[in-house]
């Protein structure tokens, strides 16, 4: 292991210094990733050593403790200022292949939060499965790959981390082996993912051929003088954009998302649409600010990245919202809704223009929106998981009258729907407000206007869920609602509380996100 920064993990050293203890070694900056890896391996070991006593409860607790440990470490490091310029700057490990900074820690916190909710909810969702050990280990190890993806600062590391996320995800989508929809969704996800990975790695090879390096810092330096290889590099970057679009379910590689999210187990849909999307944007933010000069001078390949991402943002949010508005099934509606929110997050890349003076603010707002989105979207899919467990049905009509038999969960779902639509006083309103304001300040007022119009459109289909739950007359299907799955119920309520509590606590969230984003432009 090679450490490029001469400083130790300064903020971590601050606490031991009060008692005269030695500073913690720099490798401990990888603590959140290591916590997830340790939990995943422990789950596999536990499932092997105790095959006759393995239960959903034990395995769920191990997975939850591991993800909570990752969340606690990420929060501690962020609060202490790890990776910020004031504390010695980003910490680079393994010959600059991994970078621990505010952006990496912020997105690791998002991934760990979503993972905790998913593994807790899965305790009830998988209650009838005899061998749930592999499910929990796959979820936690995929989360470890997402956290590593947020920290990757080499194109090689990015590809390896991307596969660490993708391979477990294929198995998770097809986990319900006796369910034809789940198996079909897993097969489609695998085929599209394999093609996307091939395109992405070929793009990396072209960038390497043009620049002679895989490190993002070296790639950025080489882009200043590409000569005749500018076209090769440009094609490589475009192919890499396609890979990022697949991971974030953005246009033009979005078509897999509705099929996969609909067929997968609902907790898996929550995990992929929230945590995996956040990890995809984390690496996209890093690559297009550190390697390809997004937000700086126009690169030698002659591509206006701001315009490219602006077009992708508009098309993605518009297509996602219009498609969601015509769906008849709630889960499929949320799948298209997740595509629309990918378009909102793309504003964080699109609004970073060559002459913009609020680059850190607009990217930080996009990061904050993904933070809030992690809770409200995960909670919405977990509510669907509860409905699936009850066997109520999939359509809007099947949800009619749910508020009369499950009032607390229905209130939580109402919070999720209104927050996703961007209505005050929920967290989604503030995250969209700062995101659109950042775009306006950077000269992309028209992009903010398109986003606002799409938010108005989304209110139509989100309100359909609320109307069905609270206003429409109950159906005979509600007779199946005869239990209150404690863990699943608790996860839904916690996600709703987080969505509401982020209202008074949004200040620290946006400040932390903006500080992490601004450091990338330093």
Automatic annotation (TrEMBL):
GO terms for molecular function: NADH dehydrogenase (ubiquinone) activity. It is found in: Membrane. Pfam families: Proton_antipo_M. Residues 152-458 form the NADH:quinone oxidoreductase/Mrp antiporter transmembrane domain. This is NADH dehydrogenase subunit N. It is a multi-pass membrane protein. GO terms for biological process: ATP synthesis coupled electron transport. Keywords: Membrane, Transmembrane, Transmembrane helix. InterPro entries: NADH-Q_OxRdtase_suN/2, ND/Mrp_TM. The chain crosses the membrane at residues 27-46, 58-78, 98-121, 133-152, 158-177, 189-209, 229-246, 266-285, 305-326, 333-355, 367-387, 399-423, 443-462, 487-506. The keyword Membrane applies. GO terms for cellular component: membrane. It comes from Halopenitus persicus. It comes from the Archaea.
